[in-house]
Design a protein that fits this description.
Blueprint lengths: L3 E5 L6 H10 L5 E2 L2 H5 L9 H21 L4 E4 L5 H14 L3 E7 L2 H7 L7 H12 L3 H17 L3 E4 L5 H11 L2
Parallel strand pairs: 1-3, 1-4, 2-3, 4-5
């Protein structure tokens, strides 16, 4: 099934982990992790936000090409603005595939721990530095709250990603696109 599956939620909630697990069971699907792609841009460490803005149009082209093959795309990306969400929704419409918006949530106290204990990937470290400069846990919770408001308006599917139960979240999302 060709679908654009958008995993939205606060930093550290498990979007990338869930995307990796979903794609692992779907040969030919693309995990279009924009944070990973941004790290392929020269100068991304010095201008993390700018590199993200430059990579997004390229990511949309990559997703369009993938969707044209009849295979799915998983997009693990925090999106807090309606304008940006509309671009991805429009991409799915133009490609003639469903857009499935999933908001992944976890308790605030868990998010407060998770964003600081993320993997050792370079782009994760850069993201953590930015979050710390914006207020740390408060910035994480605010980003999650803004994305959640947008998800409510967009009628997204809400899925919990509680500690030690990531497989439950993966199964719930898997059922949405099977």
């Amino acid at each position: 099934m060709s679908v654009l599956l958008h995993l939205n939620g606060a930093p550290g909630v498990g979007k990338s982990t869930i995307a990796e697990r979903l794609v692992a069971t779907r040969p030919g699907w693309l995990n279009c992790d924009i944070d990973f792609l941004r790290a392929l841009m020269g100068g991304w460490r010095d201008d993390y936000v700018g590199a993200g803005a430059r990579i997004r149009p390229l990511a949309r082209e990559l997703m369009a090409a993938q969707l044209a093959t009849g295979r799915g795309v998983v997009l693990p990306q925090l999106i807090m603005e309606d304008r940006e969400l509309s671009q991805f929704r429009s991409l799915a419409t133009v490609c003639g595939v469903p857009y499935v918006h999933v908001y992944i949530e976890a308790p605030d106290e868990e998010l407060a721990m998770r964003w600081q204990r993320r993997s050792d990937k370079q782009w994760v470290s850069a993201s953590q530095r930015i979050l710390r400069s914006l207020g740390g846990t408060e910035a994480v919770l605010m980003a999650g709250a803004l994305a959640r408001e947008l998800a409510v308006v967009d009628r997204a599917v809400f899925v919990r990603s509680d500690r030690g139960r990531i497989d439950v979240a993966v199964d719930q999302i898997d059922n949405l696109v099977s």
